[in-house]
Design a protein that fits this description.
alpha/beta; TIM Barrel; seven-stranded parallel sheet; two-stranded antiparallel ribbon; 9 strands
């Protein structure tokens, strides 16, 4: 089976490291990967104000051409050693579907492989970046009325992303579908989310999409599990939904981290 890392960031990420593209590629080759997809955070839609303090959630629109060109050069340079894919991690943002579609209509033809993720939730007329930090997450709980309400809002938004009409270049993979658990050691889930999660899994299956099996949560001190966690991933795997390993690396050293979790899951009966 091809060994692929389908979720990798780059020096174009404002909140990442300055590790160069070739450093990521060489690390992937060293780790025995056959394929690597660069999925930088796509520029946020015009009219949307990044709610993070430094406004550094995504790359700038004016960098898109350079981003594509840089990776294309390396695709050719390393074509005999590893398959390099040009991709993006596209944010699904409520009420900005049209702007996202316009962007994808312009740049989608250059993309090989991309992810559609939910990071931003609109609660009580304001947008919040739900995985920014534990304090923001706590504020979101207060505004939503309860942790259970926040979980429901998040899964509803993931469902909206799955069913959204973003045009012919809509990403085929849904990103870290349980990101709402990032701070679960601080805010333990004492209620069942099975119904919401199963609706997400069913929608992904019906739309013939893939799931980003994202191991970044294992590196987060308040999470400690993959996105999605093992039981959900097994459910998706049994339903023959493609699970694509994603390191979600923001530095080259994280390429291939915890790949054994994915390998054991996808090769188990």
């Amino acid at each position: 089976m091809m060994k692929k890392d389908g979720h990798v960031h780059t020096p174009y990420c404002p909140h990442g490291t300055t590790d160069q593209l070739e450093t990521y590629i060489n690390q992937a080759i060293e780790e025995g990967f056959d394929s690597l997809t660069f999925t930088e955070h796509a520029p946020l839609p015009p009219g949307f104000k990044d709610p993070t303090p430094e406004e550094d959630s995504a790359m700038k629109l004016e960098d898109m051409d350079s981003y594509i060109n840089d990776i294309q050069i390396l695709k050719d340079k390393y074509r005999h050693k590893i398959t390099i894919n040009i991709g993006l991690e596209v944010d699904y943002i409520k009420e900005f579907e049209h702007e996202t579609k316009v962007f994808l209509d312009q740049y989608g033809k250059f993309l090989d492989d991309s992810i559609l993720s939910v990071h931003f939730l609109k609660i009580d007329h304001s947008y919040y970046c739900m995985d920014y930090d534990e304090n923001t997450f706590g504020k979101m709980i207060d505004i939503a009325g309860s942790l259970q309400n926040l979980h429901q809002a998040y899964y509803n938004e993931v469902l909206h992303s799955i069913h959204s009409d973003l045009g012919n270049f809509k990403p085929k993979r849904i990103g870290h579908i349980t990101l709402v658990n990032k701070f679960q050691k601080l805010y333990p889930v004492t209620f069942s989310t099975d119904t919401s999660v199963k609706k997400v899994i069913q929608a992904i299956k019906e739309q013939k999409l893939e799931i980003d099996y994202n191991v970044a949560g294992l590196r987060k001190k308040y999470c400690g599990e993959t996105y999605p966690e093992e039981s959900i991933a097994k459910l998706a795997h049994k339903q023959k939904i493609p699970l694509i390993y994603g390191s979600d690396a923001h530095s080259a050293r994280d390429i291939g981290k915890n790949y054994t979790h994915y390998d054991q899951l996808t090769n188990s009966n």
